[in-house]
Amino acid sequence: MKIQATELFLKIDEVKNKNRYVFLRGSSRSGKTIAAIQILIVEALTRPKISITIARATQVSIKNTILIDFKEVLEQMGIWHNGTLNKVDLTYTFENGSIVRFIGLDDTTGKLRGLKSTIAMVDEVNTIDRNSFVQLDIRCEEYIISAYNPEVEEDWWGFDYEKKKNAELIVSTFKQNPFLEDSIRQSIMDLKNTDYDLYLIYAEGKVVPPREKIFVQPDTYTEEPKGVKSTYIGIDWGFGNDSCGVVKVQVVGDKDIYVEQVIYEQGLTNEDLIYLLRENDIDKNYEIVADSSEPKSIEQLRRAGFRIRGVKKGDGSVLFGLQKMRTFKIFIKDTSTDLITEFKNYKFKRDRSGRLTNVPEGQDHLLDALRYVVMEFVDKPKVKYSFL
Q: What confidence score (pLDDT) does residue 112 get?
């Protein structure tokens, strides 16, 4: 019998007998589910007559996902036919009497409430409710392995369990899976240039809120960044109920941008804005881009000596700009509280049926100012000319 063990397998094996709860956070290509199944199979083979429960949110999903993984692992080990699969009850019984039960937590027959197990595993634990987890917990004798992808709500109940003294969190990425095909490995790395949110999930195993949130909450910074290549200013006009938003954007490397909230006020006239820009040391040395819907305001700032232009717009320019922003790693100055709040609350609207639309909602004055900078300056390669 042979096991293609990964680093993750060894980590689980090290902590499982020291903790009640073992949480595996990682992408679908990190190998977390396979490693957990391998652990359970070894337990079943070396400990006669124990009972193991493997659960998912629904009964339907069991047959199409983790039961297939379970069979493939046993086949790789060369022992699939050393036990018996009951296709009706979805149980697998080993020759030594140990049994693995597969259950969907949407079962209405009461099977869950009366089920006892030595060890339990919950696959995609982020898709079940707290009560279902509690029912498994109070009927499990030893430990529970819970695997999930890091795309979860910020107030997900599982975080409470991860903080317990008898819990261990293991974060895994595709880099810890040596059996992953090179083509898939490269596809994951390419996400950094197309969708930074997905890159954080699948390449770094970081917690990312559901996709209705347009941005992952960016990291903050305190000290000025080093190695700044260029600096730009973005302006979103406002007067009455809408605040005028001004941001300073510093570009470091190819994909890192550092953003600071400079102005965020209502009721500003153009004269007020010109005064505040100069007070914040923004002058003709900076390239500025603003909302092109107010050409008169742009011209007034230009005549005051600022190097300002209007952002180029068109159909779909908002979504295009948001997608471009998501390809960058964004850091926000820790004092930029309004900008941080806008990032946190900006999301795609849902329709009456609860389906996500492509219409953003939430305060976005400072976000718009940043979007203008990305569209007009940051995402555009510098043009190089050669003369014959």
A: 57
